[in-house]
Amino acid sequence: MIGFHRLLSYRLKALWNGTLSRQARHRGLNWAMLLFVIPPSLLFFWGAGTAMGIEARSMANGAELMNWLVIGLLAAEFLLMLMGEVGGFANLIFFSARGEWLRRAPITGRRYLYYQIVEGVLVMAAVPTFFLFTIYLSLILGYHASLSALVAGVVTFGLVRLMPLGLSLVMVWALIPRTDRETFRWLDAAFGILFGFLMLALWRLHYQPDTLPRLLEGAYVPPVPRMLVTLFPPAAVGTVVNSVLGDRGFPLETVVLVVTQSALLIGLPLALAGRMIDEGRFPEPAPSTVSRARSWLRGPSGPLAAMVRKDLLVFMREGRLGLRLVSSGVVTFLFLWFLVSSAPMGPAAPALLLVFILSSEAGTLVVPSEGKGVVWPAVAPISPFRFILGKMISALVLCGFLSTGFFVFLAAVQHWPPQALGRLLLLAPPVALFGASMGVFLASRWGRFDWDDPRRMLHPAAQIFHALVMGLGFVVTVVASGLDAASDPFLHRAVIAIALAGCLGFVALALTDAVRTARRREWTL
Amino acid sequence: MLEALGLTRDYGTFRAVDHLDLVVERGELFGFLGTNGAGKTTTVKMMVGLLRPTEGTARVDGVDVAGDPARVKSMVGYVAEEPQLYDKLTVREFLAFCGELYGLRAAESRRRAEEWMEFIHLRDRADQLLEGLSHGTKQRVALGAALIHRPRVLFLDEPTVGLDPRSARQVKDHLRTLCDGGTTVFLTTHILEIAERICDRVGILHHGKLRALGTLDALRGRSHDRSLEDIFLELTGGSEGAPSPPSDDDAPGDPRDGEEGRRPA
Virtual CA dihedral for A453, A455, A459, A461, nearest 10 degrees? Predict the structure, then answer.
């Protein structure tokens, strides 16, 4: 029987050759990440975490601050795992080609589950977890450099990483074999959104809008509310760690709560899923039918309209693509909530940031969403210009649809001054064009139109450049928030004109380049 | 109708297609035979405008593929070996989408989609997502999608791979009907039975070079009435016989035989 370490080594090889870089010529990206992205990031997080821990130690209310920081980091890890694990584990266990080979091998159901879970826990979302773990551990060591604190921290982090897995397995157990992988992907999104809003609701319930900035400054640190500890597993686990850090004795009541939560979230689901696999309850692929009423075939004629209509249908039905957009939207929305709550900028500026991020994300997704089906537009008499234009329109429609939903929600809970709304209506279209064209440009450049598996090809490039997009988004919003220069109307208009010209200039350049790339390429399908 | 003049394609130092000269007439069903890796798919991709030739020219109805690819693409239909479809569209949506890609009005495209679903016997699955269809059914959908704009030339890359005998028979019948209606069909295959049964002429490609070209009768006449299989094997160097399989000594044994996993000699 193959040893676990051998299995993991194959997985890591596949990760290096596949997920990080599909072909040899792209391994440069792997090395770029290993040499230039990961080490400086680790150093930064290590330094920041240690400094925060040492600073908290010298504060009068340092223990409470540490409690919040530890719980916050554990909650981030919990949500990170949750927002990808329901579908992720269902996929690993039931739908992946790798899993198929393993299931055929002469191993027991429990061992199969063990292989997949350990692999999933180690590999899934490994890079962001690595960063979170670094800052978490350095924070603890900065505050309380002892072996017991280190062990408590590591064990707790592992426990929190496993808890979403339990929730995933419960979903798998409850839904298999009555559903398909798409349902699990949408469950990912739903879980992430629900827990995001649960956190927000708890936060809003107990605190004033300026709690977060004041918490970070250490000026006012309230105790962790009982409700949060009881309802949110990372809060309970984090409180135990904090007791160890603060040498405050054994928190028997909280430990009992954590053990109960862990048993419910990890032990029970594992037992259920193990039994399910032993019984061979695997999902049977069933044909999915779309009712003709839901089949959206009406609309304008022509190749361009057909491309856009097809893209929108694919996005609505492909959980993986929708999930990425929704995740971006939720993360941005949470960020905006705090921004708007503490109001360092006018409401239009964060709204523009939302537009920018959603449109750039949609732009990077609409090109590779073609997959190998791109052979049909490739052999059709549709020009590269129309192809790219169709992708642009799809990205803008998707961005507009999602942004509107978020704006409606935001408008319901916030007061929007008329001038902010006017500025938003004036600047949102060019900002969306800017973001979407940047996304299409990146997808065509870095995806290289190599349709062997474009999503994988694009993945590392998109990750690296998403940071760039975020940075540019901040620049855009800072410029937009600076447009309040009522004292100098000429400067105000000049800044708007330059910003618009810059946006449109970039749009033209990016699209020209994307069209040129599409025209030059050969279709190695 | 279809011409290749000195058509050549290199991948780095490897020459996949080597100065191919070929003419296929209107309404002809031409079979392009060759072993795996002979260069058949590369040739087809150059003819439909997916790949640029390193040297030479391909023309469809007198139009240079590299010079005016859009005009050529509007005249041809292409079915790839693997039916690469959009999984999240239904059969009806996909056919209508392909019609509109070729410039048909939306209403006309929908009407033809209904016609083709009837023709390829998929009306009862019209609203089913493509991801749930079998390989053979997907291949039939791909055929319908390639024909929806009524192309003058149809290229098919291994059209019967993975089809059950009934579906394969349907595809062969469709192709014959199309040719009788004036459509030129260029199909690649390594299944000699298909070439023998339905093709008007065949070409045999080996290592990128055209080794034989003509009607089956002419090829047999030149080879002392031997079968197409014999001719094919002789031209492609496959008549030496297959390599012997790994011996039992090399194969992993039955785990039930013990820890060493080796069967007794």
Answer: 80
Closest CA to A332 of A204, A441, A477, A209: A477
A397 and A485 together in one domain: yes
Same domain assignment for residues A259 and A388: no
Q: Are residues A253 and A352 in the same domain?
A: no
Q: A88 lies in a domain?
A: yes
Phi, psi angles (nearest 5°) of residue A289 = -115, 140
Q: Helix count (H) and strand count (E) of chain B? A: 9, 10
Q: For residues A331 and A251, state if they share a domain.
A: no
Position A293 in a domain? no
Question: B128 and chain A: CB distance < 8 Å anywhere?
Answer: yes
**Given an 8 Å threshold on Cβ–Cβ distance, is A376 in contact with B96?**
no
Per-residue pLDDT of chain A (525 residues; tens, 9 = 90+): 567 777 777 777 766 765 544 444 556 667 777 777 778 778 888 888 898 888 888 887 788 888 888 888 888 888 777 766 666 777 777 667 667 777 777 777 777 777 777 777 777 777 778 888 999 999 999 988 788 888 888 988 988 888 877 777 777 667 665 566 666 666 666 666 666 666 655 555 555 555 555 655 666 677 777 777 777 788 888 888 888 887 777 778 888 888 888 888 888 877 777 777 777 766 665 667 777 656 665 778 888 999 999 988 888 887 667 766 776 666 666 655 555 554 444 566 667 777 888 888 888 888 877 877 888 888 899 888 999 999 999 999 999 988 888 777 767 766 677 777 777 787 788 888 888 988 888 787 765 554 444 444 455 455 555 555 555 655 555 555 555 555 566 766 676 677 777 778 888 888 888 888 777 666 554
Closest CA to A516 of A437, A455, A439, A441: A441
Please indicate if any CB of chain A lies within 8 Å of the CB of B150.
no
Torsion of CA B75, B79, B84, B88, to 10 degrees: 60
- Cβ of A303 within 8 Å of Cβ of B103? The answer is yes
* A348 and A488 housed in the same domain: yes
Q: State whether A147 and A102 are in the same domain.
A: yes
Contacts of A185 in chain B (CB under 8 A): none
Alpha helices in A144-210 (DSSP H): 147-175, 181-206
Domain count, chain A: 2
Using CA atoms, how far residue A460 sits from A28, A173, B28, in Å, is: 11, 33, 48
**Rounded CA separation A72/B167 (Å):** 60
| Interchain contact B82–A (C-beta under 8 A) | yes
User: From A384, which residue of chain B is nearest by alpha-carbon distance?
Assistant: B70
Residue A291 domain flag? no
Q: Which domain holds residue A316?
A: 303-520
Nearest to A236 by CA among A208, A271, A263: A263
Q: Which residue has the tokens 């975490």?
A: A49
Chain A residue whose CA is closest to B259: A1
Whether residue A430 lies inside any domain: the answer is yes
Beta-bridged to residue B5, according to DSSP, are B57
- Return the amino acid letter for A328: S
Question: Domains along chain B?
Answer: 2-84+152-238 (3.40.50.300)
CA dist., res. A170 & res. A265, Å (int): 8
Q: What is the ipTM of this complex?
A: 0.82
Q: Using an 8 Å Cβ cutoff, are A76 and A160 in contact?
A: no
